[in-house]
Every structure is written in structure tokens, then in C-alpha cells.
Amino acid sequence: MADTPHGLILYDHPNSPCARRVRITLVEKDLAWATQIIDLSRLEQRRPEYLALNPNGVVPTLAHGTRVIYESNVITAYLDDQFPAVALYPIDPDDLAAVHAWQAAELAMAKDYRPLMYQRLLGPLLRLTRTLDEALAAARRSTSDAADLAWEEKVWNLAVLTPPAEAAAEARLWAWLDRLEGHLDGRTFLVGERCTQAEVSVYPRVMMYAFVQLPITAARHPRVAAWMARLRERPSFATTLSDADRQLLALAQRPLLPWLGRTLQKNRPSLLDRLKLGIARRMARRALGEARIGRDQTAEKTRALLKPRTGDVAPADMPARRGDPATAAERAAALILYDHPLSPHGRRVRIVLREKGLAWTTLEVDLLRMAHKAPDYLAVNPAGELPALRHGERIVVDTPAIAAYLERVFPAVPLAPDQAWPLAQMRMWLALEAGTHKEFRPLWWLCVARPALADALAPGVAETHAQWWRDVAAGQPRFDTSPELARRIVTQKLAVLEGRLARHEYLVGEALSMADIAWFTRVELLPQLGVEVTHPGIRRWSARLAARPAFAAA
Q1: CB neighbours of 384 closer than 8 A, spacing ≥ 6?
Q2: List of domains in the chain
Q3: What is the mean pLDDT of residues 13-31?
Q4: pTM exceeds 0.85 for this model
């Protein structure tokens, strides 16, 4: 650890945009770190050894001495608290809220980018370089989970998205980029007059648009192209571009990937196609290092790869960086919540407001008619998600950002720790809860929303979102795996929750925090989704919270 005086180890993958934003942050802060590569192509992120570090089973994860922090936005916020000399999160409350909004917008965009990436890039490359048996054999070296294996098979079969869903995802990604283009009109940076965590959070995935056959050009998006060119010159962005990303950028400039996707889905490729596939397969295996696919790693090597090497460094905890205290006039402004009675995220903000003893006015947005995707609401929150909070002239979007904002403006009843490490722990519980989204969301629409679904869509809902509503009405919302496996994945997360609540009254420290509020609003709905909650620690915790007046109200 001599070369990493702070005991920083990053569990990384060269192609991960989430890991790259942590690498950029570390370079900006002039921090040295060691790296352990987690091979996503072999599902090493799903190995039990790695899941013990990061129960969401994704990269990155950061070890800081004896501490382990996961989820990229949690890691970067923790680094700003622990190493504040070079701050990437603004202290100004408006600018900080804007950075959080861009992080939320990127996460929303990623929900469309991720399946398109598997459909157009990773699926074709997997199928080109491995047979289905080889792909599943490689996956089984890391995991025996039925959901993981079903997902790997779905990726290999190029069945992540149907053609209409693929076109809809592409349209939403272009629309997202159009909004970014509009925002950059007259601006050099996304927030304020300097590079902030907004750039660090947004750029790595926007750069990867080319990987899914969505090239960013100066003709169509001149401001975005210029913004990206400026950032590429910044040392932290330039030095963290991996060789693997360079290879994919070069590949994206050729017509190979679109041809590959079309050809691999043919029932009977022509002789010429088969010859071309053979040549492409040999080239891809050499370029991607797949020649070693048949070599199984020994159990000893696998354990060594994923063994936590955090050492015995116990970092000193730092105070969490807070914005300037709110003025009396700021606190006195009216609170207006854009909400819907069935929204789990709206419910958690309502609980926060009640716990803090605050009064507010509700503007109902008809979730069951997709009014959160209609023009009127998109003018409030371009991400099209509930809830949003208006406080005077200020609009704050994304539930964690709303909670953080209310914590700064109304601190008398604290719902978050004031030290960096406990605050990071709270945020990790929130990240674990957010990690259930892709399983929870379709179950919620199928089991909770569909029985109450409105007769018609709200006016102006784009076709790319209208199809989701029609699929729900037909009882067929899109699942990455299946409803049964989605329930299984949610249940697995409950085991992590139970591990804490079997021995403690709250998820962080000895007091209620936003982590408890967020998880409670998930857990209380699980029986309606067909997920039985039998864990005694969770049941005791749920009953105790449900008895609080702020939770008992709807």
C-alpha cells in the first residue's frame, strides 16, 4: 500500500462509465489508488466474494482503508467529504441541487442506454465470440443464480429488446441528448462557471452513445460536441479513457456492429455471411482477449482476484460538507409537491415533510395516465419522474436530492448523519434500494398500477412512453428476466436488509434516517407484488416505523 497512502483500492472495469467517473474524480483530487479489475464479461461482479463487498453486484466499489463504499455517486460524494481540498460538488445550494439533478437525469438516461447497449453491442459481441454453452459455462464460474443465467442467455439470444422497444429506447436517448444540447446554449459547463461533478457524472456515458450506434456529430449537436471536445482535453478525462474504450470507439466507426446484429439474428445466414462471421469472430477474439475463454480459473486464483485488500488503515472521519444555512426568508417560502397518491417515491418525501413538521400543498400528477411523461410536467422535471418539489422559485427533482435539500433548509429534525462515513453508509442503503428498481418497477406497474389504470393517456404523451402504458394495460410490462425471477432478486436484497435489522433498530446509527424511509416505502408494498416478507428483523422494524405518525398517514 506504499503507493496508495490513503489505502484507496478501486474495484473497476475498463468499459464501465460508472467506474470511470470515480477514476476522473480521483485524478481531479490528485489521489493515488490501486486497482482490482472485475471482469464483467465473466460475470465476476456476481461472484459471492464480490457481492460481499457490493450487494448490488455492479462496479465500481471503493475500499478506503477498512471502509468499503459502493455506487459511483455515493463514492464521489464520499471522496468530496473526505478529501475536500478539490471540491467537485458545489457548496452553493442552487448549484448543488443542479448537480444532483444532472446525476438523476443521467441515471434516468442509463435505464434506456443499458438495454440498448446489451442489444446492439454486448449481445452481438458475446454471440460472435462464444457459443451459448460457452457463454453459460463462463457465467456459471461466477454465479449459479437463475436470474443471472437467464439474463446471460437473453443477451446471447439478442432478445433484450424487441424491435419496437429498441426503436423507442433510441428515440428517448436522442431526445435526452437534445435536452442536453438545449441546456448548453450559452453555457461552457453544465452547472456554474467551472467543471463540477455534473460533467464527471454525465460525460462518461454520453461518450458511449457511439457504442450503441448513436454518433454525436457537430452537425446535429454542435454544443454537445464542443462540450465533449473541451472535456477530452482535461487531463482527468484524457488519462482515464481506457484502451478498451478506445477499441470500442474505433469499432463504432465501422459498419461492422449494425451488420453483425442483423446477420446474427438471421435464421439461415448465407454462405458469404457465414464466412464473414468466421473472420469477424477470429478478429474479435484477438482484439477482446477471448482466446482464453476456455481456460477456467482455479478456485484459488478466483479468491485471490476478489479478496478484499483493504488493509488495516482506519481513516479518520470527516464532517459532511454542508451548504450555507438557509435564510429565514428561504425557509418561509411555500412548499409545493408534485405527487401522486400511489407513488412510492412521493410517499417517502411526504414522510420526510411530516417528520420535519412542514406544511405543503400537493399538485397531483396523474401517474395512471402517464401525466408525468406529458409536456406540462416535463416542463417541471425533464426526467419525467415523480416527485418534484417547488420551494419558492426553486425546483428540486429526484427523491434523494429533495431529501438532501430539505435536510439543509430545515435541519431542526435531522434525517441524515453529519459525518462523512455514516452519511456514505446511508447513501449506500439508498443505492441498494435503488438497485431493486428494474425488478420492482414492472412488478409495481403490473400489480399495483394496472388494477387502477386510467382509461386513457394524458394528452401529449410521446409514443416512446405510451407503449409502456399499453403494455401494462395488456398485463405485459417488460421484465429483464421474468416476474418470478424479479421477485427472487428483490427477495435476495431483503436478506441484506435483514442482516442489519436483525441486530439494529435502524439502518444507520441509532436514529431514523432517509435510508429507513426509502426502504420502508418499498417493503410495505412487497406483499402486493407477490413477495412475502418473513424476515423477523424487517418485520419488527416495519412495525415500529409504521406506528410513527409520519408513516401512519397516507
Answers
A1: 108, 372, 373, 377, 378, 465
A2: 8-90 (3.40.30.10), 93-301 (1.20.1050.10), 328-409 (3.40.30.10), 420-552 (1.20.1050.10)
A3: 97
A4: yes
